[in-house]
Structures are given as C-alpha cells and as structure tokens.
C-alpha cells in the first residue's frame, strides 16, 4: 500500500513540473480521469497527456505555480490485483512574487490495478464538497 | 507503521463523510479523545460515536464541509503491541459555494495498541499552538 | 521507503518543538541544508543545530508558532545505500490567539544515505516557485 503513496508523490511532482507524459503514465493505457473542475473526462494515454500539457501551459501563462498536495490516503484491497484508494488533494497556488494560498480541497477516489510496471490508476473520480 | 498512516486515512474520511461508527471504531472500545476545541473528553465507543455524529451534524447545519487533513506522521514503538504517534492535523473548511480555507492546525498525540482487529487508538490528545 | 516518511515526520516535529539537536541529527554529520529563505547554507551538525535554534528562537520572539507540514513524498533509489526524495513542505503559521495561515509552499529535494543509525539526509535543497 506504500506503493500507492509513492505513486501519488510521483504523479503530483510530474504534473506540477510539466512532465505530462510521466503524469499520464501513472494511469493505465485506458485510464480515465473525471473531475468537476473540467467539462469532459480524459480517457487513455493520449488524452491524459494532453490534459496534463494544457494544465501546465495554463499555469505558465497565468504566472501562478500550482502544487498538488496529497494527504490522508486510505487504501483497501478489492482483489488480488486491485485496490481502491481515497485521498485528499489540495491545490495550492503561488502567483509569481506573491504568497501561497489554498485554492481548493478535493477528494480523489481511485481504482488501481497491478500491472507489470507496478500499480496504475484505472479510474480517478475527483469529488468536491462545499 | 504504515498501518498507522492507513488508520489515519480511514479515520479522517469516516468523520468527514458522517460515518460516525466507523470513526469511533478507530479507537479501542475504552478509547479516549481529548481536544481543547471541545469542553469535555469523549471516552468509550458510545461517546466517541456521539461526538462524531455531533461533529458532522454541525457541518451539515452550517453548510461548511470540513476535511481532516493528516500529515507529517512520526511513529515510535513503546512496546511489542504499543505505539505512540504524533502527526499534524489541519482542519480545512469549504463553505458551500465558497473557497476552501485553513481553519486551524493542531498536533495529535496518540497512544495506539495492537488489537485482533489491527492497531487502534487508546488515547488521543489534541494540542493547539498559537 | 517508509523510513523516509518516518524521518520527515520526526524531523518536522523536532524543529517545530525547538529540539534543535534532534533536527540536526536527521542529517549526516557533514549534511548540508540550502534554502532560498536563508542567505547561507548550513553544513555539518554544529551549523545545522545552530540553524534550528535560531529558527525556533525567532518563532518564540515573534509569538507565531510554525509547523513544517510534509506531504506528497516521492522516493527513488539511486544505489544500494542511497535515495533521492522529493516532497512538498508547507510552512503554516499560527500567531498567538489568531487563525492559522499558510505562509509558503516549497519543494524539498533530498539526497539520503543509509547509515548505521538509519537513513540520513546528506544534502537538502529547498526550491520555491512563484
């Protein structure tokens, strides 16, 4: 289950650093990402990579660095090669030359599967409260 | 010690989702919870469950979703079946339709014991600075 | 790799509690700490201890408790006895009698080595965005 913490760490640093392909590689090749912050889900490596590229390009354009802060991870086995995981994701923004501020907190609910390359996210649903 | 991270994840998602019995079940049946945010300690499964029910009912009534964000966990063995754990707990609030904001940061100091059902909290003391 | 999470937990609670020698002991005896928040790096146990003492004395003087919140840890082996680790570090401040607030978010990039006493930080570089 430590592998899930590790996957999340790698994933956040990838998207925040603009390494879009590395972010997409934390999903399966048919992986799905659904978030109320975006109008459409992204499905499959090509769409996921394009999503992460757009995300980072928007940060660069706006001049606000964003950090995906992951915490409070709860993992449960749903089969020998399947896990579900629930965690909190805080988006912290730092406009250039200004103070950091919490933009939003969400709950991520992931279905993970074991692959030859390690655990990967088959489906992520992002939930917002409030 | 990963079991403690897991217990904390499960615990936070339980109280934030209004699953009061699940939250109380992360304590031993004689478990104790003391926090300067509340006038009285809660002791034993019935009181702990009632505490979590009141907590969630107050969130629903106020229209502000609360998230218990756990991080920075430091676990030390104090015996073959006993641990102490210190962690940071941030309470993040999201009033309906508004931005999220950090309400407070506290330090939790837990005594944990191994039970047939896994590690459980025998005593939690919440500390506030500032 | 769980050992790195544990090291970070112990380290944050040490500096936030004013236990300067315990903080310095999470580095090797020739360990190095570089941060853009401070004009000079600190190198070796004596300088690291003095750094942590000054940090805590400044908190006491200002009346603002600071918490080093660690999250989103990504660890990779670079050799049998060497790791690199990247994580987010949020500094949360609580002025006496006031609300808590996020002061800044940084990325820490650590080189760790295995020692007889466990994993220790040989070099930490703190990065700031924005």
From TrEMBL, chains A, B, C:
Domain of life: Bacteria
Domain SnoaL-like stretches: 2-124
Gene3D superfamilies in the record: 3.10.450.50
InterPro entries: NTF2-like_dom_sf (IPR032710), SnoaL-like (IPR037401)
Pfam family of the protein (one): SnoaL_4
Protein name as it appears in the record: SnoaL-like domain-containing protein
């Amino acid at each position: 289950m430590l592998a899930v913490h590790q996957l999340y760490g790698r994933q956040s640093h990838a998207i925040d650093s603009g390494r879009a392909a590395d972010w997409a590689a934390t999903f399966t090749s048919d992986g799905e990402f659904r978030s109320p912050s975006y109008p459409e889900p992204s499905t499959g490596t090509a769409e996921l990579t394009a999503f992460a590229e757009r995300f980072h390009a928007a940060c660069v354009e706006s001049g606000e660095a964003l950090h995906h802060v992951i915490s409070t991870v709860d993992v449960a086995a749903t089969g020998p090669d399947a896990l579900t995981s629930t965690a909190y994701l805080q988006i912290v923004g730092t406009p250039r030359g200004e103070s950091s501020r919490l933009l939003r907190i969400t709950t991520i609910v992931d279905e993970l599967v074991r692959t030859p390359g390690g655990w990967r996210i088959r489906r992520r649903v992002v939930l917002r409260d409030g």
